[in-house]
Amino acid sequence: MANDRPNPSLDEAIAAFNRGEYFDAAEMFELAAPALEAELRDLAAALNRIAAALHLRFERGGRQSSINLLSQAMAALDEMKPERGGVDVERLFAEIGALTEEIRAAGRGERAGIRHRARIFLQRRRAPKINRRP
After folding, report:
1. How far apart are CA 11 and CA 43, in angstroms?
2. pLDDT tens column, 34-73
3. What is the rounded CA–CA span in Å between residue 63 and residue 79?
4. How far apart are CA 8 and CA 26, in angstroms?
5. Which of 47, 66, 122, 130 could form a disulfide with 57 if both were Cys (CB 3.0 to 4.6 A apart)?
6. Which is it for the CA torsion 29, 31, 32, 37, positive or negative?
7. Global pTM?
8. What CA–CA distance (Å, rounded) separates 27 from 109?
9. What are the domain boundaries of the chain?
């Protein structure tokens, strides 16, 4: 049975991301990308990586996989500064960089216990948002 539901828009994916629904947002970015013009497709791909990284970090406690995805997204975003498709890429790049360094600073073997849970909680509270430029 075919899915008759239209693909989500980039704006819908951004809204899901900003609500902290990272798994759903990653899927929405992926589904929205084919309908976008090339310049926005690259942005959607970078945002997809960020959403996937945040899902892995906050829902599964992933460290290195999150760092890898965030680093890949930052490499792509660096070429899109200061703005792409109305998204404040400069600010997002800075926030992703800070979060990546925070994750790197977390101990490799520390995946359990109250300190780890507290760190994840704080990182989630400081998770970047996708902001539009006026």
Report:
1. 12
2. 999 998 999 999 999 999 999 999 998 889 999 999 999 9
3. 25
4. 11
5. 66
6. positive
7. 0.88
8. 30
9. 10-125
